Structure formats: structure tokens, C-alpha cells
């Protein structure tokens, strides 16, 4: 618990560091009575149970035998602990192929998203050029464009290029930035003192050099946020793979599991499906637990308005 | 530093900071130098955002124009499109399944969007409490947002199973009969709405960002004036959160119009029972990739685009009455 609360002073605001030490102290210095946080805690623990329930249900079901899964009333704690379900889930479908495809797409998308959106956001936040605010409103406007209106022409385009059934339609667009990430990174970059950038310029540093030596290291929490958002969106994407990846050899985990389930609709074992689903989200859970303090800070410091 | 969207960054230094540096170096004639710097900055700036400009042209401008064009044709994806005028739109207006899909989508939006805002705001307030283990709560509340829609759908299929699902056990506990939510046209919509609430973590984080931007001094002043927690929420927290609320509202509505994956998986791609989970996006997808009616599907996409645009403008227009930009929070 204490390791989670430890704060990294390089990126932190003093107020948050103070929170960690004096969580029960009011701003005016008086100490809050113990019962004033008790109600909050009860509500939060209740909410936590509710929000952990699906995850628990998934793990518990994955560990049950077929018979136990079909029992009514259901057992809250698995009686049988069938770890074999995980082995069966991985061997019953081309799990490793799906996993590899998902991994290739996600890693490429994360790298491309971080790089492209950061360069674009730098152009909007750190260089003064006429018309950039008008242009930024156009960026925000694209945030509200429903993607279905581009769906059919994009499919048509990738089909003409002969790239349907390859991973490219799901990777290449990430190289061209996305409104939400540009917005998030721009908010963060605006917090860098202008004097620091100008000092570097006076010293003769190019914008490209300033971007890498000053802006990039300063923006690591925000970049972590973008990386996690991009990883989750890409790893969990269902519709993109559904449309572009028809052959089993190129399918991702999201679409592969659904294919497995609909092909075996009559006798699909849900405990195996749960086991496979858990293996799918496991990399994301690990990624999030490792980086969560940067992730949440990346959003909350930039601020929204 | 202002974090306002509307803030003009040029006000940070007249003529741009680099322009100022040039003016200092050449006090006799700053104007030509400033113009040169402006031109050079324009070139550099455009160069840096060029990936985005190219992306907008390829992935937004071209497909939107192409989609509008296709909507006036009959096109299966194989042969060349044939021009049919407004026929697709006439067909859509009379199509009973379009009516069902619009009805389902509106049902979803009207319940899921306000409920989603409420859940997200509750989570954000919980995430912002001053308790020692707050980082743990933040992690827990966000964790379900990491579970992909397809996996969450599998969980709900097991959870809601009429024979052995835990959902029925709870209902039986309170003396209710066994229900099969996924077998009922309204029930399946309610199940999908409930499922969506577990993914409120993203919107909650955006609310949390807004909460943390409210200066603490305002609360201190209010407490000195004798305002209790409820009064503080109504008079400070809520009004200052309205810009963030607007953002979450528009993205929520936009997301609701496009609800797809959960319905696709829960119903195994059918949208049944009785087309109860046939949402607009599902019907669009079926026409495009199931029936190879790409022209008709494009017309449906254009209509969705117009509906989304109209709703966004309506929300934006209404927002002028309730969104508070008076206090620069940040």
C-alpha cells in the first residue's frame, strides 16, 4: 500500500505530496475527526466490491469445472480449482497466433501513437504560428465525428490497396495522430514554462532538439497516459479486426475468441472462454498496475476545460 | 499557466517569444524581423503538425466525401457503383428495421448517458477523497475499464444465464422469479446498459481532472462562510465542473449512437430477441458487411453523422445556459 502512495517529486505538485503525508489534515491545518472519512470509506468499499465483481466472476468461473459452472445456486468460491481450463483454452483455439497478432498491432500502435501525437501536440503547444488556434479548433471538431461515416470508404480503400486481411489497416492510421491524444498532450505541454523553451532557442537549439531534450522527458506522465489509452483501445478493439481480418491466421484475440465461441456455439465451455478472456486482459492489468500512478497523474495534471 | 481551450497562447508573449528575441537583437527595425520569424514559425509549426493534416485528409475528409457520394449509389463492393439518386434515403425512411434500430438506440442513449454521467461523477468524487488508500480505490474503479467489451459480454452471458447465473440467485433471494434478461427485447438493452456502467472509469478520470482543477481556496472560503458539504457541491463543485460535464456529455452521446460490440457479442451477431438489441450501428454493419449493400449502408452512415452533428450542436447551444466559464479554474 505504501509503495502505491509514494510520489515521484520530479513530476508532482506539492499539494499531492502533502496529501500523502497529511491525508487527514484540513487545508487550515486542523485534523479531521476519524468518523468524517468513515462514511466515505464505507461507500468506497461498497463501490469497490461492485466494480471488482466482474473480474472476480471471470476468474472464479475460469476455475470451475463444467459441472460446477452449471450448478444452481452457483458457488461463490470455486470448489474444484480447475487450472486445466487455462491449458485447454490456450490449446482449443490458435491462441498464440491470436496473441501474437494482437501484440504486433498493439505495440506498433502504441509506438506510432506516442511519437506522432507528441510531435503534433508540440506543434500546437510550443511553436507560435499564425492560425494555430483556428487549426486546433478543427482538431477538437474531429473529436466529435462519428467514425461509422468513414467506415465503408476506408474499407473500400484498404481493399483496393490489397491490404484487407493484413494488420496494416489497424496499424497505419496511428501514425497520423488522433484528436484526443493531441488534446491531452497539448494540455500537458502548455504547462512547460515558456522561458525554458525560449532560453533553449536563444542558445541556438532547433525545435526538434528542444522537443526531444526538454519537452519529451517532461511529458513522461502524459505520454504514459497516451500509451495506456492507445494500448487498451488497440488490444480491446473488436470492430476493426471484425471488418479487416477474416482469415484465422491474422485474427486478434478479441475477434478470435468470438469466432471460437460462435463456431462452437452448441458446446462452448464458458469456463474455458472465461479462462481465455482472463489471459487476454492479464497483460493490460499488469501494464496498468505498473504505470497507474503516472497514468492518472498524466490526465489530472493536464486538466480539462 | 492557463489550461483553457479558448486561451490564446499568443498572449503569452506579444508577437511570440521568438519574435521578442529578434526585436531585442534589432531594436531599430523589429517589424520586418518579426514577420520573418512569423513566417518561419508558420513553416515549422505546419511541419510539426503535418502528420495530422495528412491524416485528416486521408482518414476523414476523403472518406466523409466518399461516403456522401456512395450514399447516392447502389454498390456491392464488387462492380462499379450505380447512381440511384436519393433512393437509399427514401428506402431508409420507410424501412421498419431502421425505425426499430433508431428506437433501440434512443432507448439506450436516454438511459445510458445520464446514468453514465452520474456513475462517473460518483466515482470521480470517490477517487478524489482524502483517505490514505485513495490510489487503491482509483485503481479498482478504473480496472473494469480495462476489460474489453467482448470479455465483459462473456462475463454477463454467464452472470445472467437463466439456469445457473448469479443474477437469478440474487433475484430469488428477494423472492423474485427466474428471469432471462438476454431473452427479452427490453431486458437485453437493460443488460447492455448495465454492462456499460462498469466502463465509467474513463469518464470518471476526466471528471477527476476537473475536480482537481477547482482551487481549494474557494472551498475554504465557503467553509468559513458556513456552507456544508451539500451546499459546497451545489454552489462550487457542480458549476465549476460543467465544462467537463459538457465534454463527457458530448462524448457519451456520441458513444451511445455508436453502441455495437456488446450487442454484437451478447446476441452473437443477430441483434435478437425480436431485434431488441438491433442498434443503429449493428444494422449499418449488417447492411454493409452482411448484405453487401454498401450504398444503403453509406446513406445510413450519413444519416447517423447528421444526427450526431445535430445533437452535438443542440447540446452545445443548450450548454451556453448552464456551462460556467466564469471562474478560471486552474
How would you sum up this structure in a few lines?
With 305 residues, chain A is an all-alpha fold. Chain A is 70% helix and 0% strand. In chain B, helix 2 (30-70) packs across helix 14 (294-322), helix 4 (96-127) crosses helix 9 (201-213) and helix 4 runs antiparallel to helix 11 (229-257).
Keywords:
heterodimer; A: about 300 residues; mainly alpha; MetI-like fold; 16 helices; flat; B: about 325 residues; two-stranded antiparallel ribbon; 2 strands; about 70% helix; about 0% strand; disordered N terminus
Provide a descriptive summary of the structure in words.
The complex is a heterodimer of chains A (305) and B (330). Chain A is built from 16 helices and no strands. Helices cover 70% and strands 0% of the residues of chain A. Chain A is mainly α. Chain A has 2 domains: 2-83, no CATH class; 89-303, Orthogonal Bundle (MetI-like fold). Chain B is 70% helix and 1% strand. Chain B has helices spanning 17-25, 30-70, 87-94, 96-127, 134-146, 149-159, 166-173, 185-197, 201-213, 216-224, 229-257, 261-266, 280-290, 294-322, and strands at 73-74, 82-83. Chain B has a two-stranded antiparallel sheet. The interface between A and B is large, with 113 and 121 residues.
CATH superfamily of the largest domain in chain A: MetI-like
The profile of the biggest β sheet of chain B is:
2 strands, antiparallel
Largest interface: A-B, 113 and 121 residues
The biggest sheet of chain A, with number of strands, parallel, antiparallel or mixed sense and barrel status, is:
none
* SS-derived structural category of chain A: mainly alpha
State which percent range the strand residues of chain A make up. under 5%
Overall number of domains of chain A: 2
Amino acid at each position: 500500500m505504501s509503495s502505491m502512495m509514494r510520489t515521484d517529486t520530479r513530476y508532482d505538485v506539492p499539494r499531492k505530496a502533502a496529501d500523502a503525508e497529511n491525508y487527514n489534515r484540513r487545508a487550515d491545518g486542523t485534523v479531521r475527526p476519524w468518523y468524517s472519512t468513515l462514511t466515505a470509506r464505507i461507500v468506497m468499499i461498497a463501490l469497490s466490491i461492485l466494480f471488482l465483481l466482474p473480474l472476480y466472476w471471470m476468474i472464479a468461473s475460469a476455475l470451475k469445472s463444467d459441472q460446477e459452472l452449471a450448478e444452481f445456486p452457483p458457488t461463490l468460491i470455486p470448489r474444484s480449482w480447475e487450472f486445466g481450463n487455462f491449458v485447454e483454452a490456450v490449446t482449443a483455439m490458435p491462441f498464440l497466433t491470436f496473441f501474437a497478432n494482437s501484440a504486433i498491432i498493439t505495440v506498433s500502435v502504441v509506438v506510432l501513437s506516442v511519437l506522432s501525437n507528441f510531435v503534433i501536440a508540440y506543434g500546437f503547444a510550443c511553436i507560435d504560428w499564425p492560425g494555430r488556434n483556428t487549426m486546433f479548433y478543427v482538431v477538437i471538431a474531429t473529436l466529435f465525428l462519428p467514425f461509422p461515416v468513414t467506415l465503408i470508404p476506408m474499407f473500400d480503400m484498404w481493399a483496393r490497396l490489397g491490404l484487407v486481411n493484413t494488420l496494416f489497416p489497424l496499424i497505419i492510421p496511428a501514425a497520423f495522430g488522433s484528436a484526443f491524444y493531441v488534446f491531452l498532450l497539448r494540455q500537458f505541454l502548455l504547462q512547460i514554462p515558456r522561458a525554458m523553451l525560449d532560453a533553449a532557442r536563444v542558445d541556438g537549439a532547433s525545435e526538434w532538439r528542444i522537443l526531444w531534450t526538454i519537452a519529451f522527458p517532461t511529458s513522461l506522465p502524459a505520454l504514459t497516459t497516451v500509451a495506456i489509452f492507445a494500448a487498451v483501445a488497440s488490444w480491446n478493439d473488436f470492430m476493426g479486426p471484425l471488418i479487416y481480418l477474416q482469415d484465422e491466421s491474422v485474427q486478434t484475440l478479441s475477434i478470435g475468441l468470438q469466432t471460437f465461441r460462435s463456431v462452437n456455439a452448441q458446446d462452448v465451455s464458458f469456463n474455458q472462454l472465461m479462462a481465455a478472456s482472463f489471459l487476454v486482459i492479464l497483460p493490460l492489468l499488469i501494464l496498468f498496475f505498473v504505470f497507474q500512478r503516472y497514468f492518472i497523474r498524466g490526465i489530472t495534471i493536464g486538466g480539462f476545460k | 499557466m492557463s489550461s483553457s481551450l479558448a486561451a490564446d497562447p499568443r498572449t503569452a508573449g506579444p508577437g511570440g517569444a521568438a519574435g521578442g528575441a529578434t526585436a531585442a537583437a534589432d531594436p531599430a527595425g523589429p517589424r520586418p524581423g518579426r514577420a520573418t520569424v512569423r513566417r518561419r514559425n508558420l513553416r515549422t509549426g505546419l511541419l510539426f503538425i503535418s502528420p495530422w493534416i495528412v491524416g485528416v485528409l486521408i482518414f476523414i475528409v476523403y472518406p466523409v466525401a466518399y461516403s456522401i457520394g456512395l450514399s447516392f449509389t447502389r454498390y456491392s463492393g464488387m462492380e462499379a457503383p450505380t447512381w440511384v439518386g436519393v433512393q437509399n434515403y427514401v428506402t431508409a425512411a420507410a424501412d421498419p428495421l431502421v425505425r426499430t434500430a433508431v428506437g433501440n438506440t434512443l432507448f439506450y442513449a436516454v438511459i445510458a448517458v445520464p446514468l453514465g454521467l452520474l456513475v462517473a461523477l460518483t466515482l470521480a468524487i470517490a477517487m478524489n477523497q482524502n483517505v490514505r488508500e485513495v490510489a487503491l480505490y482509483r485503481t479498482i474503479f478504473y480496472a473494469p475499464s480495462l476489460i474489453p467489451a467482448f470479455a465483459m459480454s462473456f462475463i454477463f452471458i454467464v452472470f445472467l444465464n437463466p439456469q445457473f447465473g448469479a443474477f437469478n440467485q440474487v433475484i430469488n433471494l428477494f423472492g423474485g422469479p427466474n428471469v432471462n434478461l438476454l431473452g427479452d427485447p427490453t431486458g437485453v438493452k437493460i443488460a447492455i446498459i448495465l454492462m456499460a456502467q462498469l466502463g465509467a472509469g474513463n469518464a470518471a478520470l476526466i471528471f477527476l481532472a476537473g475536480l482537481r482543477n477547482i482551487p481549494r481556496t474557494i472551498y475554504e472560503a465557503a467553509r468559513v462562510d458556513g456552507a456544508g458539504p451539500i451546499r459546497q457541491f451545489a454552489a462550487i463543485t457542480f458549476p465549476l465542473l460543467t465544462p467537463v460535464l459538457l465534454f463527457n456529455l458530448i462524448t457519451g452521446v456520441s458513444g451511445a449512437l455508436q453502441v455495437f460490440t456488446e450487442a454484437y457479442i451478447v446476441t452473437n451477431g443477430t441483434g435478437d430477441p425480436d431485434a431488441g438489441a438491433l442498434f443503429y450501428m449493428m444494422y449499418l454493419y449488417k447492411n454493409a458487411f452482411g448484405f453487401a449493400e454498401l450504398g444503403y449502408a453509406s446513406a445510413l452512415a450519413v444519416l447517423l453523422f447528421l444526427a450526431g452533428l445535430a445533437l452535438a450542436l443542440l447540446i452545445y447551444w443548450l450548454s451556453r445556459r448552464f456551462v460556467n466559464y466564469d471562474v478560471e479554474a486552474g
